[in-house]
Amino acid sequence: MEHETFHIEIMGRGHVWLNTETHESLLEASHFVAMIEYRQGLKVACPEEIAFRQGWIDAAQLEALAMPLARNGYRQYL
User: Fold this and answer.
1) Which residues of 49-78 are buried (b: 16+ CB within 10 A; e: fewer)?
2) Of 2, 11, 21, 28, which is most buried, counting CB atoms within 10 Å of its CB?
3) 10 Å Cβ neighbour count for 46?
4) pLDDT tens per residue across span 35-58
5) Hey, CA dihedral for 74, 12, 30, 18, is it positive or negative?
6) What's the angle, vertex CA 73, arms to CA 75 and CA 52, rounded to 5?
């Protein structure tokens, strides 16, 4: 019989695991993310912001990515 091995990683502060296996839990997770974004004034999992903060793109590249977006809150955030 084969034994499976698992890798466990303890998540530090600022991490959260959201189970979204049902319609209700998906809606609950959506509300949670919306509340975090509203209260902190930050976007959750914004790829452009992550790339900029990690140094993968510079400010000019970030601006170029934002320019084609519709004039909305996401573009203003970037």
Assistant:
1) eeebeeeebeeeebeebeeeeeeeeeeeeb
2) 28
3) 15
4) 999 999 999 999 999 999 999 999
5) positive
6) 40
